[in-house]
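User: If only I could read backbone structure tokens as easily as an amino acid sequence. Underneath my words sits a plain record pairing an amino acid chain with its backbone structure tokens. This is the protein in question:
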Amino acid sequence: VLVGLICSPPQNYPLYIRSVPTENELKFHYTVHTSLDVVDEKISAMGKALVDQRELYLGLLYPTEDYKVYGYVTNSKVKFVMVVDSSNTALRDNEIRSMFRKLHNSYTDIMCNPFYNPGDRIHSRAFDNMVNSMMMQVC
């Protein structure tokens, strides 16, 4: 399982990436960066409808043999990417959507911190704990 937050365009650099287990971390980084093109395609295909909707969940971006890649984008164009094991059939769309909402709420808490500079990498113990607890539920 991997959780990634990517900065808004045009930079598209990672603000936060966490994977469990850590031995495939480089492969997950590659997967997150390749999924950005799919996220951009979905956003441009939705166009004005995305701005009008409150639902920012993009759904399944693409499945691979081993993983399923899901996406979410905030109003400020920060992209959340989640990679889960394809063999995990217990996860349904509602659970993934709920996990993205939790991530978005925690990200909002970080943005409200006066000591956080927007665009910096996220180094928050509370955010780490939330992500770890969420990942343990999935694994």
Notes: The chain has a mean pLDDT of 84.
